[in-house]
Every structure is written in structure tokens, then in C-alpha cells.
Amino acid sequence: MSSLILAHARYQALEQIRVPIGLLAGGLFPAISMLAFAAPFVGDDPAASTLSMGSMMLIGGMSAALIALSISVAQDREQPWNPYLRTLPAGPLPHFAGRLLTAMALMVVSTIPVTLVAAIFTEADLSPVRLAGMIGAVLAGSVPFMLIGLFLGLMLPSKAAIAVSQILFFPFAIVGGLMLPPQVMPGFLNVISPYVPSRGGGELVWWAAGGAAPAALPLVVLACWTVVAGVAAAWAYRRDEGRRFS
Predict the structure, then answer these.
(1) Distances from the Cα of 11 to the Cαs of 6, 152, 155, 235, in angstroms?
(2) Per-residue pLDDT tens over the stretch 67-108
(3) Transmembrane region positions (predicted)?
């Protein structure tokens, strides 16, 4: 089974490499935001610039998990190769596990532009241990967004997946405290912020970046979003299978 998963991951990674700009697209927006909004104001503060770098890294990971994954799944469903894969006796696990591995690789790649900007224009802590912890937190915090991306890709045609994933992405990023620090957000946003998955992911990344220990409520909510999104993605797969192959 592991060899099948790696084979699917390799195939999907090659598909991504054929369009190189797609590998870095998820990291360009957070890198530009880091350069425009973080570097001029907190670039001389190692702690603040490291926290800002963590937020931007998570934004890049969310983009790869939610937007890129939903679009790729929806586009694959429209290709004749996909029905053939669905008829193979291996079942859905190798295909989707390989897809998730590819998405996680894209998340890691999306952190590169932000890290380069932080290294050149700020005093952020770029020690290997710190970076490894932050990348691990990005991967952990992006799990529900990968599952939401799978759900959208299985439910929507590609054109609709592009629009819906982007519509969801920006409110998640803003309300989760990734665009603006939670301490400067309006009061009503602070009330609802702990109940979106991006806040739980942010708490993990900020902790890995040297901030305070994460609060319990956002982590519980993050776990709940992960379970619900996983159930929804599994249901969407069965629904799509029933409609297309029954």
C-alpha cells in the first residue's frame, strides 16, 4: 500500500512541477505581505518579526491546502484519467493519501518565499530548530483546510471551486488573526476568532515561533473542524462515486 501511495504522490508532484509558477504562487502573496506590512514596522524586532513570519507561513500553507487542493481535485474529476483510477481495485486510499502528501510538500515549498523575505529584511529567528518547528506547526494547522479542500473539490466543478475556495480563504485568514494580530483586531472579531480553524493553526505556529503557549479553546476547535471536515470529505467522495459510477 505504501508503494502505491508514493506512486500517486510522485505522479501528482510531477504534474505540479510541469507548471513551476504553481509551486511558488501560494507563497508569493504572504511573502509580499511580509515585505510590505511586517518588515517596515517590526523588522527590527526579532520576536515580532518571527511571529509575523509564522503568520505568513501559515497563510501560504492554507492557500496550498484549501485553494490549490480544491482546484486540483475538481479539475482531475473532469479528466478521463480520473474515472479510470476510480475503477482500480486499490481503492481511494492511495490516490487521496498521495494527493495529501503532495499538498503537504507544496505547503513546505510555500514557506520558502516568506523565509527569504524574513532573512533579508527582518531580524526574525531563522535557526534550523525554529524553522523546523514552525513548518511542522504549519502542516498540523493546515490539516482541516486540506480536508475542506478535498470536500470542495469533490462537490464542485473546477470554476466554482476556484471562486468558493478563495471566498473562504480570506475570511479564515482575517478572522483567525493572521492578517492582523489578535490584540489589534476589532472586538467582535476577537469574539468569533477562536471558533475558526485558522486561529487554532495560528496559535500553534505562534507558539513554535517563540510566542505564548496556545490557548485550549482554539486547539479544541481546530480538532473539531478536522473531524467534521474529514467526515464531510468522506461523504463527498461517496456521493461523487455514487453519482458517477452507479
Answers:
(1) 9, 22, 23, 25
(2) 988 988 898 888 877 777 766 666 667 777 888 888 898 899
(3) 21-42, 54-75, 96-121, 133-155, 167-184, 204-237
**Contact status, residue 202 vs residue 177, Cβ threshold 8 Å:** yes
Model-level pTM? 0.91
Question: C-alpha grid cell for residue 151?
Answer: 470536500
Cell of 234: 468522506
In terms of Cα–Cα distance, which of 39, 75, 32, 29 is closest to 169? 29
Residue closest to 51 by CA, chosen among 106, 143, 130: 130
- The 10 Å Cβ neighbour count of residue 163 is 10
Would you call 60 exposed, middle or buried from its count of C-beta atoms within 10 A (0-12, 13-18, 19+)? buried
CA proximity to 106, closest of 146, 47, 134 = 146
- The count of structural domains within the chain is 1
Which residues form the domain of 181?
2-245
Secondary structure (DSSP) of 220-241: HHHHHHHHHHHHHHHHHHHHHH
DSSP H helices in the chain: 2-17, 20-33, 39-42, 46-62, 69-77, 81-87, 92-121, 128-141, 143-155, 158-175, 187-192, 197-208, 216-245
DSSP for 19-51, please give it: SHHHHHHHHHHHHHHIIIIIHHHHTT-HHHHHH
Quick: pLDDT tens for 201-244.
999 999 999 988 999 999 999 999 999 999 999 899 888 875 55
Question: Cα separation of 131 and 110, whole Å?
Answer: 13
